[in-house]
Design a protein that fits this description.
Order of helices and strands: HHHHHHHH
Shape: globular
Subcellular location: Membrane
Structural class: mainly alpha
Keywords: Membrane, Transmembrane, Transmembrane helix
Pfam family, one: YhhN
Family: Belongs to the TMEM86 family.
Helix content: 55-70%
Organism: Xenopsylla cheopis
Strand content: under 5%
Radius of gyration: 18 Å
Number of strands: 0
């Protein structure tokens, strides 16, 4: 994909269904304490649109895995509509994170970046751990580890030392979008953890869903990366 194809004018029409369904979710504003199949459908609709967006970008192992992660995300979204299915939703999202970070790959490794993120994740888990009960005492730390690994691998793909290339390379923009998307995804889940297990956060649902949808969009944008460019034999890339 060249820079012209990567332009906003090229991408915007393909994202229109996502924008419409996302706006509809916030306009309908179905109360969180009124779970229903309709509420689940409205909540999942933007993710279904992103699945379509990714699949329309072409066929490749990378794109197929992104789409599969989005499928698990939509399952998690549906489960989380009902409070009693919170562990099930977390498990589905755990699968999504696992698929995401294996899709992003482990080259370049950048272990120091990972160490920083794991320390931050550990601090958040420690903050809420006293309020966890039952399976969540095991499940939430495991999910946090998967989520932080996804963040590590998404950000490790982007070379912050070559920021000027953002203006020259379409792929750099797309990897940057994936990096920002992963950060927003983590912020969304962090707000969930704090609002559910630590303290009341006014308008938490709005913050959770806005950062979540934006995060999934950023990650999904990486499906437009050019995977056909020649690579140096001495360098492994995801």
């Amino acid at each position: 994909m060249n820079n012209l194809q990567c332009s906003v004018l090229e991408i915007a029409p393909r994202l229109l269904p996502f924008v419409i369904t996302t706006v509809s979710y916030f306009l309908l504003s179905i109360p969180k304490d009124s779970p229903s199949m309709l509420a689940a459908l409205v909540k999942c609709a933007p993710i279904y649109c992103l699945i379509y967006f990714v699949l329309k970008a072409g066929v490749s192992p990378y794109k197929n895995k992104l789409a599969l992660a989005l499928v698990f995300s939509s399952v998690g979204d549906a489960f989380l509509v009902w409070k009693e299915f919170f562990p099930h939703g977390m498990a589905a999202f755990g699968m999504a994170q696992l698929i995401y970070f294996t899709t992003f790959g482990f080259q370049p490794l950048r272990p120091m970046l990972g160490a920083i993120f794991y320390l931050m994740g550990t601090a958040l888990v420690a903050l809420v751990f006293a309020n966890l009960k039952g399976i969540l005492m095991f499940g939430l730390p495991v999910y946090a580890a998967l989520l932080v690994t996804m963040l590590w691998r998404a950000t490790a793909r982007y070379n912050f030392n070559d920021q000027f290339l953002l203006f020259q390379s379409c792929n750099k923009w797309l990897r940057f979008a994936g990096c920002v998307g992963a950060i927003l995804f983590v912020i969304s889940d962090g707000i969930i953890a704090l609002s559910q297990f630590y303290t009341h956060i006014p308008n938490a649902q709005m913050y959770i869903m806005s950062t979540y949808y934006a995060g999934q969009l950023g990650i999904s944008m990486t499906c437009l990366e050019d995977e056909s460019k020649p690579r140096r034999k001495s360098t492994k890339r995801s």
